[in-house]
Specification:
The chain is an alpha+beta fold. It contains 5 helices and 4 strands.
């Protein structure tokens, strides 16, 4: 397993983002798992306290777990390596606080704005990229 994106399977925004990443992940770097899955519960909760896990996005990379804004930065910098230089600037402490602030606002209202939709994975070309 290279990199794992854990997402809220009941969230329309999260599902849209997963579909976008699947289509744009040319190197097939990422695996995906719903935060509700047995795999996610076993994998994440064996590494950190379950009360620390947000209900929106968790990213596992090289034995480190990232949440929220930092997770987004890590994912995008892997998809677009030219962002690595920018990522170093965006991970400065005050910017992380600002990034997490805006991330949490979006996360708070995402289920009201984006209706959940079923993501058909089984039988698709992406089936082997999901961990249950």
């Amino acid at each position: 397993m290279q990199f794992i994106i854990f997402f809220d399977g009941d969230c329309g925004l999260c599902n849209n983002i997963v579909q976008w990443i699947l289509k744009n992940d040319k190197k097939k770097l990422f695996f995906f798992s719903s935060l509700n899955s047995n795999f996610a519960k076993d994998f994440i909760f064996s590494r950190i306290d379950k009360h620390l896990v947000p209900d929106s996005i968790v990213f596992y990379k090289e034995d480190k777990i990232y949440f929220e804004y930092e997770a987004v930065l890590e994912i995008l910098s892997l998809m677009y390596p030219w962002l690595n230089r920018l990522k170093k600037i965006l991970k400065i402490s005050p910017l992380i606080l600002i990034g997490n602030f805006f991330y949490r606002i979006i996360a708070k209202y995402r289920k009201k704005i984006f209706k959940p939709k079923c993501m058909l994975v089984q039988g698709s070309i992406y089936e082997n990229r999901f961990l249950y």
